[in-house]
Amino acid sequence: MRFRFSEFIYQLFSKKQINLDVIFLTFLVLLVDISGVVFLSQDHQKVEAQKNINVRTDQWVKVEEIRGTVTYRNYYNYENRPAKVGDLLHITSDEISTGANSSAVLSIDTAVGSIFVAENTTIQIRSFQIAADNGRITNLFVPRGIARLQIRKFTHRGSELNIQTPAGISGVRGTQYIASVKPDGNMLITTIEGSVATTAQNQTEIVNGGFQNITVVGEPPSSAVPFNDDASLTYSIHRQVSGFERSIVLLGFTNPFNTVKVDEMEQSLDSSGEFSLQFPPISSLTVKVTVETPTGKIQVYEIPIL
Questions:
Q1: Residue 159 three-state SS
Q2: Chain segment 266-294, per-residue pLDDT in tens
Q3: How many CB atoms lie within 10 A of CB 166?
Q4: What stretch of H or E contains 47?
Q5: CA pair distance 166, 143, nearest whole angstrom
Q6: What pTM value is reported for the model?
Q7: 258, 231 contact by CB (below 8 A)
Q8: Contact 98/119 with Cβ under 8 angstroms?
Q9: Are strands 103-108 and 113-117 parallel, antiparallel or unpaired?
Q10: Which three-class secondary structure state does DSSP give residue 27?
Q11: Is the torsion defined by CA of 262, 298, 228, 123 positive or negative?
């Protein structure tokens, strides 16, 4: 037979066997029993909620120094503002970009080293990860510009610092090297100390200290060649006539790992270091050509176009 508490109370009242103490204790027992169920359910909900909390690793890249125009951006929250010393890049798509004649210095969360960001360069956070041995993995993306890295040896074997570019990926575990991304997306690696692994098209080339290599978009990395910190430039001037059109062509040659600017506009070099520019047949014109090596050595040439 199913017990009904309401009928039990009715019988007590109807038989005038009312015992207030009994009624009070009965209600108290039921209240405690119901409350116990509620409390248990709340505790269970807390446990389930905690299971759904994503553990966020304390990893970041910090802005230590700024010179000139440096911009912070995040495309997820549409934030776009001048960068400040102390800014932390710690979520996917956080990035800083330097303008002309500007630079920045970044540090990495574990004090593993620093990154010098040259002018007209963008560095973006791709991801942070924790290795099986609790090592830190930092993945950055450099779509353009020059980043000079000085990284000490990691304390965990699983730690990594990877620089991705449109052409490929460079990975280090403790070294000093320079990653350059040209306007056409090609990646140039110059290793000062240690070694760097460059990977593209499922092939990897190791670039040891004192060597360089280049990775062209869509191709595997080239073999490493000895580093040559030479900012020299050779050039020739040619006059061309095509129908009724006349022009002057400047052909320049330098180390393909150098950066070349003509009147402050960066030029694309082919694999041999050649570039060309076409000018109208003006009677008198002087062109300013700036050649910069990966280490920052600069040579300026004033070339008369007659």
A1: coil
A2: 998 988 999 999 888 765 688 999 999 99
A3: 18
A4: helix 20-51
A5: 6
A6: 0.75
A7: yes
A8: yes
A9: antiparallel
A10: helix
A11: negative
